[in-house]
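Progress against Task 2.4 (sequence-to-structure conversion) is shown through the following example record, which the project officer requested during the mid-term review.
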Amino acid sequence: MTHQYELMVILNPEIDERQVSTHLDKFLKVITDAKGTIENIDIWGRRRLAYEIQKKTEGIYAVVNFTATSEATQELDRQLKLNEFIMRTKVLRAEEAIALVAAEKVRSDAKAARKAATAGAKA
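Structure tokens generated for the chain above:
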């Protein structure tokens, strides 16, 4: 059974930004070999990190949307973690990501409602 996934990768900033897609293609072959599909590769480019990773303050971000089996996704994640040019990875099922965004919206709406209620009670 296949699912939709979103992969975020932070690559070593020493890589030439023009080489990012070729580095990713080597790993994404795992997905295509397992009859999965790559929907979108979005390279965000060099960004400042929130905290140092491997004594680096910058990284090259890339986001990949794909459809694959969970076994192929686990193998992709395993191979990415073994590569020295990959600093961090995060794989999310698209359904989970949508649910997280919806839960955060409900939480922030409830907080805004409480804040408005306390502001109205003070007036």
